[in-house]
From TrEMBL:
It comes from the Eukaryota. Residues 28-206 form the Phosphoribosyltransferase domain. GO terms for cellular component: cytoplasm; nucleus. This is Uracil phosphoribosyltransferase homolog.
Amino acid sequence: MEPDVIQTSTLNNAEGDFSRNIIHVRITDQIKELQTVLRDRATSRSDFIFYADRLIRQVVEEGLNQLPYQKCIVTTPTGSQYEGLHYEKGNCGVSIMRSGEAMEQGLRDCCRSIRIGKILIQSDEDTHEAKVYYAKFPPDINKRKVLLMYPIMSTGNTMIKAIDVLQQHGVKEENIIVLNLFCTPQGVKSVIKKFPQLKILTSEVHPVAPNHFGQKYFGTD
Ligand SMILES: O=c1cc[nH]c(=O)[nH]1
């Protein structure tokens, strides 16, 4: 039997207006190729890591475009003045373990000394409720903008729990930018319903999430 062809879809207006919340990486043929390799079950693990790191880098670079910058003037080697920009201090990353850790290096490659916190959330074996097992953040996280890294968002339950924890540490919803590779319309809807000020930066909104991501990237079961 021919497998169903998965069509790319995005959230349509009938599903709600998420235009203020979703930031889409610009879909070029290059980005589509990276997504295709990551979805292809025939992709070897080493190719998977290589292509995932490339897509992560694109999402991270776009995430940095969302941060605040300030005007500055520098002097060039010829002694002239150049009016430029430098980033405003006060950002940090937070990865949702374990798959979010795959995005840490991409962030560090762009921001060498950025602080990165971590949250571990797992489903309770009996109740299936998302439970926080570990959370460690920079002490002044309530004053920072947070790049919250999680590559695959399916139901949105883990993301909702992670944002709850950040809010308990004083982080404002409008200071959080989710960095994501693949998310489902359902996940987006449930997260935005709870956090209407949130920004989610993604490369693809699609009904089928590549849930094998973490296992294949880290080579675990
Ligand atoms: O926090 C930031 C943001 C942009 N660039 C950096 O090096 N750090």
